[in-house]
Write a structure and sequence with these properties.
It is a single chain. By secondary structure, the chain is mainly beta. The protein has a single domain, classed as Glycosyl hydrolase domain, family 43 (Tachylectin-2, Chain A, 5 Propeller). Helix content is 3%, strand content 52%. Strand 25 and strand 26 form a beta hairpin. The relative contact order is 0.15. The structure holds alpha-D-mannopyranose. Alpha-D-mannopyranose binds next to strand 11.
């Protein structure tokens, strides 16, 4: 399939929040079309404190419940068991992140291919109790006159969870707290109620695994209480999403069903390759998966040099999808290698025509 793609944002476009911080990545953005037809991104900005040659690592932690007041924690080298690019593992069985993420607003043209303005201060940050170690990977929908944003938080006590925030103007946010508890992320909301209920897709992670991490569905009367959950889409052995899958962007309504983009991970030795597929879900009963991208050929895989090499190599991670104004294409906004943000324009009919019908999702176990 022909995909028109463009590199939109790189770390050097972003002003660090504090003078002694360095931007490592601007990636995994929420995307929404504004009433004036332009597109707004809430891009994840990951920053690191520039080390000063001391004998310890520093990690920032937000300690205020109402502003971005940060304290620096210290980890002495003797406490470190293993140091990953993203995570430092400490003795005692806990870990700390090497970066802290917030969300930055970026304004794009109507066609999504030109950056018109990048704000130079954070628009949404972690808070005490709601992302002390940062907020990550937001996804956004508009229902009625309200913007709803689900986002990953990394908390001191609760660990990795998903929270929800609601806004009428994309400036002031009402934080609703944790909606999917530890260890659950890749939460996307459907952009309208279905059969009178809010519906979300999410991706719980277990420690005792009888199956690989998969995409689940959940329902809510009020966006706070979620339930009637089940796994609706599994990873398929040997496929490009062999290790696990997770929802990418909020589903898009088409005549044939809900069009869902999802990421899939294949492990190659120590490396992980993040590719993207699509699925079609029944409009009235989205737990029914009608069709999916072939297990053998993803829709999108890391092909550009900024997707193959970066903070984490080999990653295309979409978090936003906005229908193009021509009604025929979709604009997919993704992180590349956990470093940059890209836009990709794909033809919706070609995506749907390329899907394979799923007879019985359980057959893929
Ligand atoms: C995880 C998350 C994402 C990240 C991918 C790829 O799913 O940490 O934020 O983009 O891994 O590294």
């Amino acid at each position: 399939m022909k995909i028109k793609t463009k590199l939109l944002l790189t770390p050097s476009d972003i002003k660090p929040t504090f003078p002694n911080w360095k931007v490592e990545g601007v990636f995994n953005p929420a995307a929404i079309r504004l009433p004036n037809k332009k597109i707004m991104l809430f891009a994840r900005v990951a920053e690191r404190v520039i080390p000063k040659g001391e004998d310890h690592d520093i990690y920032p932690m937000v300690i205020s419940p109402d502003d971005y007041y940060v304290k620096y924690g210290k980890i002495s080298v003797g406490k470190i068991i293993d140091r990953g690019r993203r995570v430092i593992y400490l003795n005692g069985g806990i870990c700390r992140l090497t970066t802290i993420s917030h969300l930055r607003r970026v304004f794009l043209s109507e066609d999504g291919f030109s950056v018109e303005k990048i704000e130079d201060i954070p628009a949404f940050t972690g808070m005490a109790g709601d992302g002390e170690f940062g907020v990550e990977d937001p996804r956004m929908v508009k229902i009625g006159n309200k913007y709803l944003m689900s986002y990953t938080i990394v908390n001191l006590k609760e660990g990795v969870c998903t929270s929800l925030a609601i806004s009428k103007d994309l400036k002031k946010w009402e934080r609703k707290g944790i909606i999917f508890r530890q260890q659950n992320k890749d939460v996307v909301l459907f952009p309208e109620k279905i059969n009178g209920e809010y519906v979300a897709l999410h991706r719980p992670e277990g420690t005792i695994e009888f199956s690989k991490k998969s995409i689940w569905i959940s329902h809510s009367p009020d966006l706070i209480h979620w339930g009637r959950e089940k796994s609706i889409m599994l990873s398929r052995p040997g496929s490009w999403g062999d290790a696990w899958i997770g929802s990418a962007a909020p589903p898009i309504k088409t005549k044939k069903g809900w069009l869902l983009f999802y990421h899939g991970v294949k492990t190659l030795g120590k490396k992980k390759l993040y590719s993207v597929g699509a699925a079609l879900l029944n409009l009235k009963n989205p737990e029914k998966v009608i069709a999916r991208t072939s297990p053998w050929t993803p829709l999108i895989k890391p092909t550009e040099k900024y997707e193959k090499k970066g903070f984490i190599d080999g990653v295309v991670f979409p978090t936003g999808a906005v229908p193009d104004l021509d009604g025929k294409h979709v604009l997919i906004f993704s992180g590349g290698a956990d470093s940059v943000t890209t836009v990709k324009k794909l033809n919706i009919k070609e995506i749907l025509d390329g899907l394979e019908y799923v007879e019985n999702e359980n057959k893929s176990i």
